[in-house]
């Protein structure tokens, strides 16, 4: 292996970003632990790359599978250079329409499973004083949309964890990148996102309309997962890697709109905000 070759561990490789990223990373000459809850769905990814691909069973909500996947990867390849937390699901429902078991299941996968993976790889990365943690968030981790508010909340949590983690591990030679895509053809809306059977008429024009729009757009989104995979690899390979990596034209536009909205509120209420402090002579 050349010095540029790294060992990647990618979660959720059965479809979408995870699958395309595993293919691209292997094509670049890297070593990859390819994981999914059902390994039969990812065995084909390793064909022709048996010397550099390790297929593993991994459900990120099961601590014993997380520990085993990390242990096997480190033993097989000698360490983990890049962790990609890609496993995740969605849920369509207004806040009032949402079912608590579905909300908690989504947070277990999108947030707590991601956090558990980070806990598992950090000891090895700390020991080597190098590593890169890539967390697949969403433009929905920066701004919100009706009918996916709890999904947004799970991604907002990922954003907060990642930003704080980046500050903690930077002195140890470990980098963190948040990937924030807009609509990509990953079948997220059509396959992995459940939908509440509860529909409240008062939310028809907000929640209901957005539910239908997202479902109808599935398979026709402008984002190309293969191009997204290439962008992620480039972000990992550069020395000055970004903390925030927006993917897709819509993501860029929506992120700027969110910044403009924040600036408007901050500026309009600046005097009152500052006035909430004790006066300088009383501080």
From TrEMBL:
Gene Ontology MF annotations: oxidoreductase activity
Q: Does the keyword Oxidoreductase belong to this entry?
A: yes
UniProt-listed PROSITE patterns: ADH_SHORT
Gene3D superfamilies in alphabetical order: NAD(P)-binding Rossmann-like Domain
Keywords of the record: Oxidoreductase
PANTHER family (UniProt xref)? SHORT CHAIN DEHYDROGENASE, SHORT-CHAIN DEHYDROGENASE_REDUCTASE FAMILY PROTEIN
The protein in question is named Oxidoreductase
Please give the organism: Luteolibacter pohnpeiensis
């Amino acid at each position: 292996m050349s010095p540029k070759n790294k060992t990647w561990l990618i979660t959720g490789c059965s479809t979408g970003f995870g699958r395309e990223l595993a293919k691209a990373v292997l094509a670049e000459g890297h070593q990859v632990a390819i994981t999914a809850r059902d390994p039969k769905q990812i065995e084909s990814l390793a064909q022709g790359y048996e010397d550099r691909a390790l297929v593993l069973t991994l459900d990120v909500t099961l601590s014993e599978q997380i520990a085993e996947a990390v242990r096997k990867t480190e033993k097989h390849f000698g360490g983990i250079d890049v962790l990609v937390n890609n496993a995740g699901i969605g849920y369509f429902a207004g806040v009032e329409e949402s079912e608590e078991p579905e909300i908690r299941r989504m947070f277990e996968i999108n947030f707590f499973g991601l956090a558990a993976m980070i806990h598992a790889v950090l000891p090895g990365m700390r020991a080597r004083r190098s590593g890169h943690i890539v967390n697949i968030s969403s433009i929905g981790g920066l701004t919100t949309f009706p009918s996916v508010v709890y999904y947004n909340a799970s991604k907002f949590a990922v954003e907060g964890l990642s930003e704080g983690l980046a500050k903690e591990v930077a002195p140890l030679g470990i980098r963190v990148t948040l990937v924030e895509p807009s609509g990509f053809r990953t079948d997220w809306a059509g396959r992995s996102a459940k939908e509440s059977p509860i529909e409240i008429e008062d939310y028809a024009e907000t929640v209901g309309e957005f539910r239908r729009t997202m479902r109808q757009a599935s398979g026709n989104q402008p984002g190309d997962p293969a191009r997204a995979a290439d962008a992620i690899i480039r972000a990992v390979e550069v020395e000055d890697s970004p903390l925030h990596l927006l993917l897709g034209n819509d993501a860029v536009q929506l992120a700027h709109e969110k910044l403009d909205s924040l600036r408007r509120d901050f500026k309009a209420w600046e005097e009152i905000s500052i006035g909430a402090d004790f006066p300088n002579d009383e501080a």
